[in-house]
Amino acid sequence: EASSVCVEIKDLSFTYPGIDGQPPLGSKPLIHGFSLTLRRGDRCLLIGANGAGIFFVRSYMSLAKSENLLI
User: Fold this and answer.
1) Over the Cα atoms of the chain, what is R_g?
2) What is the distance between the alpha carbons of residues 33 and 11, in angstroms, rounded to a whole number?
3) Tens of pLDDT along the chain (71 residues)?
4) For residues 15 and 27, is the Cβ–Cβ distance under 8 A?
5) Where does 3-53 have alpha helices with state H?
6) Which of 18, 22, 46, 66 pairs with 3 at a CA distance of 20 to 30 A?
7) CA pair distance 25, 27, nearest whole angstrom
C-alpha cells in the first residue's frame, strides 16, 4: 500500500565528485541502480566496505524521511 511507504529510492546512482564538484571523466558510479522501499516499522541494515557509499545512502534516506519525500 503506497500510503505506508516512508522512504522509497528508485534507481539511485552516485559517483564521488572530483575537486570541481563533478565526477572525474571516465569514473564509474560507486552506486548504480540502487532501489529500496521502506514502510513504517521496517528495518534495514546496509553493509559494505569503507567508501562503498553506505553513508551517502543513509544520509539520503534521513533527508527524505525528515522531508516526507519519495525519492
Assistant:
1) 14
2) 4
3) 556 777 788 998 888 888 888 888 888 888 899 898 888 888 888 887 887 777 878 787 777 666 655 54
4) yes
5) none
6) 46
7) 6
